[in-house]
Structures are given as structure tokens and as C-alpha cells.
Predict the structure.
Amino acid sequence: MTARLLYQLDTDATPSVFDSVVAYDGGADHVIGHGSITAAMVGPLVEGAIYTRGPKEKQYTALFIGGSSLNGAEAVLQAVRAKFFGKFSVSVMLDANGCNTTAAAAVALIAKSVKLAGANALVLAGTGPVGARAAAMLALEGAHVTITGRNAEKTEAAAAAISKRFGVTVGAVAAPDAPSRHAAVRDAQIVVSAGAAGHQLADANAWQDSEALRCLADLNPEPPLGLGGISASDKGKDYAGKIAFGALGIGGLKLKLHRACIGRLFAAHDQVFDAEAILAVAKEMA
Ligand SMILES: NC(=O)c1ccc[n+]([C@@H]2O[C@H](COP(=O)([O-])OP(=O)(O)OC[C@H]3O[C@@H](n4cnc5c(N)ncnc54)[C@H](OP(=O)(O)O)[C@@H]3O)[C@@H](O)[C@H]2O)c1
């Protein structure tokens, strides 16, 4: 049987251990990690992947783009795809910092609890890889999305990048401290907290009395959690009419989804698993 080879192209110096473990668990026979990858470096790597196996075996070579820089990963994906032509391609997945699989798991679970189309959704710290993808996916599902970040310029740039990549409109609000984040939460029907691990972005007072809020999700698994008043293991827990998802409650689907996408990479030689395709799989699985 032809070995399933997954080449990890990671923009960080050390390829992610998390991504390599999930790659094996998802069905790869060998995972080969490359670190410090930039768009300018991918030419020979892609040539090695597309020219080595015949039409029937090419599907068993695949690429995984990771690392903590979403912009860097997107540039690598673009460079990889630019090398493909005709039948000379392999399947590729982008999941920088788990951005697509984590956001897709969260959005698929939220979508089961509340209607996304037309809802006002707020993504706290939507400037990071996971928050940016959560904002994009909520917008693709028809929500009116605003992201926050501590710095106005950075937040506006992140919102503009999401809008450009996905053809959606995403608002930006600078919220450098707890009071400004609490004010932003007030009118939202859906709140996703996507801040760095171990940082609280809003306490329970920010959302418990909100009349608008229907659903909240926190992606940060490390105490203090991003949203006070919920538990990391919440998975659709009802807090007086507000449905909550914690990071561990979302993490189970995230891991299954990540593994499933790795498995699907080897089903054909020409697939791209980025936000849209990964969200579609998440919605099947949720
Ligand atoms: N549940 C799961 O399965 C799962 C999987 C993967 C990741 N995660 C979690 O998802 C979250 C987001 O991941 P990520 O990779 O996108 O995170 P990240 O890049 O490390 O941080 C996201 C954003 O947090 C803000 N931030 C950083 N330090 C802060 C501080 N001291 N106070 C307030 N805000 C701060 C920054 O926004 P500004 O500078 O613009 O304010 C940053 O862009 C993390 O908590 C991560 O652990 C969960």
C-alpha cells in the first residue's frame, strides 16, 4: 500500500507537535516537519510533492500549512497553489494555530443553538488567527460581525483582511480594557471570546444581564478563562436562556474535525482545506 505522506510546512521555527500528533491520528503514515517556512521557499518542496508519484498514487502525498502567523500561512498557501498546474497538484490544508478547525468547531456548535443569519456577533480579540477565522465563518453564515482588539489600527487591519479574503463585511472596535470590552458585549446576540490563552476578556457581569445575548463561546482553555461565569467544559449549557460553550466543550469537536480533515486529504490529489471547506465538514459533524 502506498504510504500516506504529510509534509508539515510551518511558518514557526519548530513545526507544531500538536499538528504532527493529530496528523498521525488522522491517518498519515509519515509526517515530515519543515519549520521557518516562507512563501519564497515553497517551490522545491511543492515540486517534490507533485512530480514524484503517478496519477493513482499522488493523492497519498499531502501538505499541511501551520504556524502562529495566519498572514504567513495564507502567503504560503497562495505560493503552494501557484505551483500547481493541470494534474500536478496534491491536497493541502491550512490550519495555522488551529485557526480553521477551532473556529469551525465553535461556529458549527453555535449554529446548532442559535440562528446565525442576521444575528449581531462579536468576536473578542478577533485579531488572532482563531478569532479572525471565527469572524469570517460567522460572517459567511450571514451574521453581522464585529471584532475587537486592544489597538485600533491592528483591529481595523485585521477586519479589512477578513473582509478582503472572504468578501464579507466585518466591523472593528478598539477595546483596550475591560470596560470597553463590556460595552461592546452589551448589544451582541452572539459573543465569541478568542483571546490569548490565560487572559480574561470579560467577566460574568458583562454578559449575565444582557437582554440581547443568546449564545457565548470561549476558546481559551487556560484559567482565567476568556469569559467569566462559564466553565471550560460547557457544551451548550443553558445559563438562564444564554447558551454557553467553553474551550474544552468545543475542543472535542475541534480534534475530531482536525483528524477528519487530515483523513480526507488523502482521498484525492486536488483538494484545498481552508476555512470554507473545513467549516463545511464541521457542519456535517456537529
Ligand atoms: N479550544 C480549542 O480547541 C483551541 C484550539 C486552538 C486554540 N485555542 C485557543 O484559542 C484562543 C485564540 O487562539 P489564537 O492562536 O488566535 O490566539 P493568539 O494569537 O495568541 O491571541 C489572540 C489575540 O489575543 C489578544 N491578546 C493577547 N494578549 C492579550 C492580553 N494580555 N489581554 C487581552 N488580549 C490579549 C491579541 O489581540 P490584540 O493584540 O488585538 O488585543 C491577540 O491577537 C487561545 O486562547 C487559544 O489557546 C483553543
Notes: The pocket of NAP is lined by residues 97-98, 102, 125, 127-131, 149-151, 154-155, 194-197, 199, 219-221, 247, 250-251, 254 (CB under 6 Å). DSSP finds ten helices and twelve strands in the chain.
